[in-house]
Each structure stands twice: as structure tokens, then as C-alpha cells.
Amino acid sequence: MIPTRKFAAQFSTSPFQGEVWAVILCFLVTACSADVKPVFHADENPESLSDWGMVFEGDGHLFVNEGVLPYDLATPLFSDYALKLRTLWTPDGKTVSYDPDGPFDFPVGTVVTKTFYYPRENDEWDGVVTIGEAPRLSQMSLPLSKFQLVETRLLVRREAKWDALAYVWNEEQTDAVLKRTGDIKPMTLVRDDDEREAFAYLVPNVNQCAACHATNATTKEIQPIGLKASHLNKRSNYSHGLNQLDHWIAAGLLTGDFSNAGAAPKNADWQDETASLDARARAYLDINCSHCHNPVGPADTSGLNLKPDASGPALGRCKSPIAAGGGTGGRPYGLTPGAPEQSITLFRMETTDPGAMMPELGRAVAHDEGVALIAEWITEMEGACG
């Protein structure tokens, strides 16, 4: 069996594991057992996720199909502590065009998937989830014995535009069904201190998908958020010893006017304590907030710009709110140097009040670790507001 894409022959379970070619062989043998190969549906939206052939369930595992490329981000978007498996597929022979600043230019036929799942507290699914690390893929598969699949979201590059679709997994974890109007899943989160918090996990409808992915308020065009150089420029978890962008270049997938990842912008890993506090905080705000809070974004009327190159009042430093209403938490400025307890940005990250929290969509619980990072960053800021 020959892989349909050159990059399929470069997969590895991780930079730290075993004989790469043995893993590749196992992957190809297993992946070829899928009944459906990856396919682009140009017009219709199949009712079952399996009809796309990007990921599929078999023998208690979630498999990444042959020719489908898993990837990850330096700093991922927070989504109620859900773990995520991200994949990218383009029709054979079609390449992706590099852009140093915005999302890459993907060919018609591209399918991006993001599968959300949780560690289960109990063997049987009862809605109780825990906080945990994503397991390494083994033979390009995710074992499901201790995990519960919730949904798989697709971004599909069709002739006229990107379309966003959400598929919800059944409790047996055998397939997922298209939910055009979204869904709500009652869950209970068990935090590390054993505190339990009931929350409503939101599967977005089409309009809610557009609210985040339409990063330009004028064109309202849906775009990928994470598939840009600064988020992808990291050591790959899926190709042995390579930077992720260098892997894509070597595989012939990524083309453009640059030669290697060293020439590309790079966001920090928000958990990497060897990076500067400022770089980590800015990366966190970039992936979680800047798709709305940028000069042309849906939240442009706020006057906030949370892209990594923003500074001063545009970043929120000593900036009074324009129209936040009760969303200020009674605090005077977006960022008050040295005083996180007086900073609106931190309040909106801490609260779970739907009328005040940020982001408005995509979370129902507070990200304690993210809040702690931004609080530390504000505490270390020099200067004072007049």
C-alpha cells in the first residue's frame, strides 16, 4: 500500500518513540482497513461524520485515516478543558500557500477537523469529565477506553467559501451525526482539587461558528483560526524530530516565499516557563481573543487589539471601557499595571456570567491556569494609570 500523500510516509507517534518506520507500517496497515477513504463533498453535507473519511472509529480507537495529517498548535484555544485532535486533508497533489501573517491559503477541497474529547472519571459514560493530558497517538489512533468523544467540527473549503459543520458523537462512540442547530451537553467537570462543577458544554450552530471564524467584520468571511504560521511554528508531535512547518515543507504540502520555519513568526507555548512571561501571555491572548479583538474583527468597536504586536491603550493598558456595561466588573481599565484585581480583562476571563465573560462563546467554565498566567503578567507590568 502506497500512501496517497508524501507526508503520510513521514508520520510518527511522537519525536520520542521507537522505530519510525515500524510505526508507519502499522499505521498504513491499520488505516487501510477503513471502509471510507478521505473524500471532499463539494455540495452536500453528509449526515454521518464517517462519510467524510477523515477520522473513524474501530476496535475502540479513533483512527486518523490514510493521507490525513494531524497537527497541533503552540498555544491552543481553551474550550472548557476539552482535549482536541486536529487534522488537515487536501486533495492529492494540491498544496497550501504560506502567508506570514494570516491564515494560509488552502485549496478547494481542503477539510480541517477538530475532535473534542475528555478523560472520563468512570468507565461508563455518565457526563463526568476530568482534566488531563492528551495521549500520544499510537499507530495514528487514539484509544477510547478512558476517553469520551463529544464532537468533531469540520471546516470545509468549497468553491465559494469555507463552510463550518459540527458532528456530535453518539454515546457508543461509533460515529457522529451532523447537528446543524448545535447541541448542549450537560457535564460535570472534576478539577484537580476534586472540586466538581456542573456546566453546559456547547456544540455551536452554524451562526455561532461564524461568530468566531468570521475574523473580518466587513467581509464576514469564515477563515481558519489556528492554521497560521505563528501557531503552527513548533516542534511537531507527529513527525520525528522536525519542526511542524519544516515537515510540511519537506512533504511538499506547504509552498511559498520562505525556506524554513526559522523565517516564520512564532508564538510561545503558554505553558513553557523557559519563555518570557510576556511572550506566553501574548500568545494566550492571541489564540483566545484576537480573532475578534483586532482592528477589523467582530469586536472592533471595543477598541481593543489583542494581537501580539499591539501595545498601549489598544492592548487595554490604562484603557477605559467603551461599551462594556456590566462586563467591567466595576474595574476601571482593561489592564491596570500591577493590579490584576483592577483589570477588566482578567475579570472577563474569571467570570462565567454569560453577559460578561470572554470569550462569549466556546467556554462555560473559567480556565484557572490561563487566569493565573494573565494575572501574573499584569502584576509584573511596570508603570501606573493616571
Give the neighbour order of strands across the main sheet: 3-4-6-9-10-11
The sequence of SSEs as H and E is: HEEEEEEEEEEEEEHHHEHHH
The separation of the N and C termini measures: 68 Å
Radius of gyration: 21 Å
Helix count, DSSP H or I runs of 4 or more residues: 7
Morphology call? globular
- Count every beta strand, where a strand is a DSSP E run of 2 or more residues: 14
Binned, the helix content reads: 10-25%
Low-confidence stretches: 1-33
Give the DSSP E fraction (strand runs of 2 or more residues).
Answer: 15-25%
Category by helix and strand content: alpha+beta
Number of domains: 2
On the 0 to 100 scale, the average pLDDT is 89
Tell me about the largest β-sheet: 6 strands, antiparallel
